[in-house]
Amino acid sequence: MSRYRGPRLRIVRRIGKLPGLTTKISKKLNPPGQHGSSFNKKLSQFNIRLKEKQKLRFHYGITERQLLNYIIKARRKKGSSGRLLLTFLEMRLDNIIFRLGFAPTIMAAKQLINHGHILLDGKIVNIPSFLCKPKNSIKIKNSSASKNLVSKNLQMFETILVPQHLFLQKEILEAKVLSLVNRKSISLIINELLVIEYYSRKL
Predict the structure, then answer these.
(1) Among 12, 77, 169, 180, which residue's beta carbon has the most beta carbons within 10 A?
(2) Domains of the chain and any CATH numbers
């Protein structure tokens, strides 16, 4: 299944607030479709798990195959599979760029990375899915176009709270990864255990 490129507010109305997908707010309250008015209908256990899975997919802008690979990777390691899954997703370079306020959404962060605006430990990295580690340093490419673009994004989102595992120096547009993400620092409201349960029958 390819990455979603359709109307983003339609997804927000169906699933709920997804800060990584869009900053827009829909004026409509009901879910999309002709049955949207019956959105108070009780959901089945499968639908509840499916909804949580879709939250992860659309918020982080990943494909079904990518999410499945992260699930497999998390289950192979010791510890809580749900926590490990969220750690993998949160430590992606595109998500970190978004959490720093360098881009308004994760989709916009992917573009910054793909176009070579981001330096990781002094080298250009154009892979949005690159997993960052503690002590990694992140800088903006030394060009006026790159710095102006990121500075404009930072000014638009001055109220953004940088999570504890990241350190940002706004004046020089540099950041550092201090540690792995803490569960409390994750902005998305998600029940990761339901996602693991959704895939338990497929693995």
Answers:
(1) 12
(2) 8-88+188-200 (1.10.1050.10), 92-179 (3.10.290.10)
